[in-house]
Amino acid sequence: MVAHFRHEISHFLHARLSDNPTFLKEFRGRFGDARQDYGEALKKHYEDGPPDGYEEEFVTEYASSHPHEDWAETAAHLIHLVDILDSAVAAGSARGASTTPSTTPIKTPTSARCSSPRRSTASRSTT
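Above: the chain's sequence. Below: its structure in token form.
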């Protein structure tokens, strides 16, 4: 249930970030053009399954269905990883780490955090 909640929160986050045209440009470069028909993309995904080799480019099968789902699955996995690390620090399991989790906000601009190459979208189908 937590994973599903994080996935849906990621959709909400995308909607809020999409107010910024710079975000949309970076999103399309990383995840693909989400203006393709969402319903058709999901229909194709459920009829045909994920593309061959999806494991090399996507965190889950469902992420391969549409750029919005790729974003939501990826962001949800990132939230999982941060939670795991925070739990390790809080439990004193992180080597050399303080037992108090940091509350210092990330100071790197969003565009810099999003601009490192994750994978090429050139090989992705937009249909």
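The chain has a mean pLDDT of 82.
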